């Protein structure tokens, strides 16, 4: 998977001034969005605890999300593209979860 620091730099300009409530994937395919969120949580937990089973579950859910995206896109799309997109979305979602947890910890463990 991609290094999170390089991904943050690459995507910085894409997401400036986008409201936190915006979620294009949810609007496009809510089933895929649910799988991406679940995979991201497993990926984050697996990385923190060095838990191979959680990382394997994240991988499996990523493939399921890619399958959802492929069904929505139709049969003319190559298989690799939705898998790469789904993996990228999982990485980004995991990064957002990590930042959210860091922000919460910085505020003393209280949600804003």
Textual characterization of the structure:
- By secondary structure, the protein is mainly alpha-helical.
- It has helices spanning 4-15, 24-28, 30-49, 52-73, 80-106.
- Helix 3 runs antiparallel to helix 4, helix 3 (30-49) crosses helix 5 and helix 4 crosses helix 5 (80-106).
- It is flat and about 50 Å long.
Structural class: mainly alpha
Question: Please, what is the average pLDDT?
Answer: 77
From the N-terminal CA to the C-terminal CA, the straight-line distance is 32 Å
Order of helices and strands: HHHHH
Strand content: under 5%
Tally of separate helices: 5
The unreliable regions are none
Percent helix range: over 70%
What's the total count of β strands? 0
- Overall geometry: flat
Oligomer: single chain
């Amino acid at each position: 998977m991609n290094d999170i620091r390089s991904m943050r730099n690459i995507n910085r300009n894409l997401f400036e001034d986008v409201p936190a409530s915006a979620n294009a994937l949810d609007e496009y395919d809510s089933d895929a969005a649910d799988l991406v969120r679940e995979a991201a949580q497993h990926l984050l937990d697996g990385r923190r605890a060095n838990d191979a089973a959680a990382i394997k579950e994240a991988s499996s859910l990523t493939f399921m999300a890619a399958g959802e995206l492929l069904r929505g896109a139709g049969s003319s799309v190559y298989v690799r593209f939705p898998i790469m997109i789904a993996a990228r979305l999982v990485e980004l979602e995991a990064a957002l979860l990590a930042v959210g947890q860091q922000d919460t910890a910085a505020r003393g463990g209280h949600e804003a």
